[in-house]
Amino acid sequence: MNSATVRLEDLCDLIAEPVRPGERPDALYLGLEHLASGRLVRIGGGQASDMRSTTSAFKPGDVLYGKLRPYLDKAVLADVAGVCTTELLVLRAKVDVEPRFLAAVVHCPDFLEYAVSGTTGVQHPRTSWAHIREFEIPAFIPDEQQRIADLLWLVHQAIAHSEALIENGQDLKRAAMRTLFTRGLRGEPQKETEIGPVPESWSIVSLEGCAFVQTGAAKGRKFGDAEVAQVPYLRVANVQDGYLDLMEVKSITIRKSEIDRYRLQHGDVVLTEGGDFDKLGRGFIWRGQLDLCVHQNHVFAVRTDRNRLLPDFFAYQAQSDYGKAYFLKVAHKTTNLACINTAKLKAFPVLIPTLREQREIVSILDAIDRKIDLHRRKRAVLDDLFKALLHKLMTGEIRVDELDLSTHSASPVNSTRSSGTTAL
Q: What is the predicted pLDDT for the residue at 283?
């Protein structure tokens, strides 16, 4: 590779082929919702007959690039023909350009930064072909484009495999919770209750009767002359369903005298008070991941009476279909969001078997969680590798022939140009 550069418009053409509503009713339809951030292939699709506005036609091998909110990094290589929203630009690789290479170009970090720099509009920021077509990268001969694409798509395939394993694990966990919280482990008869069938020996009590529910610290309060401190605090964004995301922990100003009141303790079940309908009441166990951390007022901390209710056992109930159904039933709902208040959480009907059976059930679900976490960590490593390779290969900082790919030589990735389909 020499020091020459090419612009995006040297690699592809913008294709504008409008399709009126009803013109191709049986065609695949792709909207922005069918593309995942940072992924090279679509995650779903719709039916063109459902569309009431003009769309754009595309062919297999075209790159569909999301111009709306380009920081979301949405672009895929089309695997079949179809129509798409006009928020997606249809880019067709030129004759001597590898389509998979083109798809990788519009995901590289430098391109993302460049696209964002050319956005217009405040509520709905968009970039444009007039702007992104000027983006420059080093010139690569077709053979090197092919090898770069092979490597990147190989890593992307590994990411997709990890994601599939995570999804399978989550499906297994949901099925296990459904069975365990209705049948238990003892094979005993079931009794009908207002919340459905449960094992005959299990009792049902309100959460308030077997746990302390603590609300969190509100941000933005005025403290006057009070002595204050800046401490880390757990936000809704940190609490995922079944795990904590502590990649970005922010701080909050509170009175020093309040630290003990709001400080999370080892074994607290942290639950969000609101969110999307399918994420309502998501939670996890706090295990002292940070030495000192408080929680915000939109995150509950549930401290169970461990002589009656194990925190892990309650956390799994909150994550289960049973728990989700309760939260959704009692939540205050708006168009897109739902939230629960302290009183509703305290009234949560907790299923309580013996402590021994609680431990056994937790052990089963913990084993599934460990598998899911392993695949989640593998995916994170692959994500980092993919991003690093994108940057270093597209800038010419490293060359494919400088990398040892001998372990992958038995699994070549076919070119979209020759096969007409994606490698995945």
A: 74
CATH topology of domain 203-352: Adenine-n6-DNA-methyltransferase TaqI; Chain A, domain 2 (3.90.220)
- Domain borders along the chain are 5-144+402-419, 203-352
pLDDT of residue 195: 83
User: Which portions of the chain are predicted below pLDDT 70?
Assistant: 1-3, 241-242, 275-281, 404-424
Query: For 66-141, where are the alpha helices, taking DSSP H only?
Result: 99-105, 109-117, 129-132
Paired tokens of 156: 């992307």
Pairing status of strand 63-66 against strand 28-30: unpaired
Residue 351, burial from CB neighbour count under 10 angstroms (0-12, 13-18, 19+): buried
Cross-strand partners of 192: 197
**Is residue 138 a contact partner of residue 409, using CB atoms and an 8 Å limit?**
no
Residue whose tokens read 């708006």: 334
Both tokens of 234, joined, read 């757990």
Q: What is the DSSP letter of 218?
A: P
Query: In angstroms, rounded to a whole number, what is the distance separating the alpha carbons of residues 85 and 98?
Result: 24
| Contact present, 78 and 59 (Cβ < 8 Å) | yes
Q: What is the CATH number of domain 5-144+402-419?
A: 3.90.220.20
Q: What is the pLDDT of residue 414?
A: 40
Alpha-carbon distance of 303 to 306, in angstroms, equals 9
Burial (CB < 10 A; 0-12, 13-18, 19+), residue 16, is exposed
Q: Which residues are bridge partners to 197 per DSSP?
A: 192
Helix (H, G, I), strand (E, B) or coil at 91: strand
